[in-house]
Amino acid sequence: MKSVLKSGLLALASLALPAVASAHPAVGDAAGFSHGFAHPMSGLDHVLAMVMVGVVAFQLGGRAIALLPVTFVLMMASGGALGVAGVALPYVETGIALSVVVLGIMVAINVRAPLAAALAMAGLFAVFHGHAHGAEMPEDAAGAAYAAGFMIATGLLHGAGLALGYVIGRAGERQAVFVTRAAGGVASLSGLGILAGLI
């Protein structure tokens, strides 16, 4: 049981590794798929939100396990299209930071939201994340390859969240509650730090 708990804590700790990178990296020479793939992985705000979506999907169970991540990726693609087209969207960075706070709280207190409400919330937050990806696409990048990169990276982060939820669920009830609250709390506090400009 301790090994399961330790695995869960190590998985959570690994989420902090991208914090050393800028939330939105400079364009530089990178383009296309590799840049699109790297963008969601390079900022703590994106990583935490994507992983928390996976954990929330696991907590809700049933159809949410597939529908929540898929809805997020599809709505993120819509937001990305707006960003590429130069359509202004107010409060993008605030929306991204709030997504980390809200999703972290949902994980910490194990919110059992109705599926429709969870999908609507995920879709709204996804538009902000997608807009940031699209607006920062390098001019020399192939749009379809860039979009494929950030969508695949996002899907992998959702998968990591689902796996984290599974690992936590394998722990005993008391340990699982502690680890879940800790994971959600860390994410939520990080989101507040990002919102306040401290991270």
Automatic annotation (TrEMBL):
Transmembrane region(s): 39-58, 65-85, 91-108, 115-132, 144-166, 178-198
Coiled coil: none
Keyword terms, alphabetized: Membrane, Signal, Transmembrane, Transmembrane helix
Domain of life the protein comes from: Bacteria
Signal peptide: 1-23
Protein name: HupE/UreJ family protein
